[in-house]
Amino acid sequence: MKRRTLLAASLLATPALAAEAWPSRPVRIVVPFPPGGTVDILGRLTANWLQEATGGNFVVENRSGAGGNIGAQAVARATPDGTTLLMGSPGTQAINAHLYPNPGYDGIADFAPISLVAEVPNLLAAHPSLGLRSIPDLIARAKAERLAYGETSIGGSTHLSAELFRLQAGIEGEHITYRGSAPMLGDLLPGRIAWGVDNLPSILPHVRSGALTALGVTSKARWSGAPDIPAIAESLPGYEVTAWFGLLAPRGTPPEVVLAANAALQRMLATPAAVQRLAELGATPIPGTPEAYRAHIDAEYTKWGDVIRRAGIRLQ
């Protein structure tokens, strides 16, 4: 069966599990990465918003490992009754299938998408001790000496951001992959690595404090919240990577549960408070239907599969 057919069928498989209004029991939102990163930040915001919108009890559980595969697999195998949800990302839903021989789940067919929540650019930042002020500065320095650099998730958008930058810039370096934002920043902030890529909400506070120097955002254009930070594409035309995050349920979750969760989330994403909070984090809300989220995942799966093959990216 084709992947799109399997995905569409996920909302049609309707076991009699949700006759009562959702949520009638506590709901667990699995964040498949460590605390402190953007997936965790947005997962906790989503839990708070859903709790406020429905009056239900929502808790976040961090289940990290294998580039998000461990947490995603746990949700894919959970009972599809609306009590276990996943905070998904490009890595878990669209990229890992191209990098891991057996992720343990299918990022498309094993889930019923509920809604996208937000998208963020990634940010490339350097340690201030290097004295770099721009992407061309970094490229010139990296061609003169082998610099250590890092990103926050194997196969995630930060990994692809760093590797695409290296490939387009024509540089080499000591590449270190970290399991989450906190470990990477733990080496970047004291200068043990020269530069790194992280989701904007995780790294921006350190730029604003002066602890790191922002060199470029990975979106096609500058981010409106910090228009003084150039887009990497200004120096490397055609460069673009954007991270997105959204809520999913296991395949077979009753459609009424999916629609109830979607409706609650749409109400909250439209509030001025949510829009402002996301803007403070460097994120943009992406309200929409489950069908729109399905189509987005499908397009991202194709896009990143092509990029990974063309770039020859392999797990180390």
From TrEMBL:
Q: Which residues form the signal peptide?
A: 1-18
Extract the Pfam families matched here. TctC
**Record bears the keyword Signal:** yes
Keywords in UniProt for this one?
Answer: Signal
Q: Name the domain of life this protein comes from.
A: Bacteria
Coiled coil spans:
none
Family according to the record: Belongs to the UPF0065 (bug) family.
Q: By its UniProt entry, which PANTHER family does this protein fall under?
A: BLR1237 PROTEIN, TRICARBOXYLATE-BINDING PROTEIN
Q: What is this protein called?
A: Tripartite tricarboxylate transporter substrate binding protein
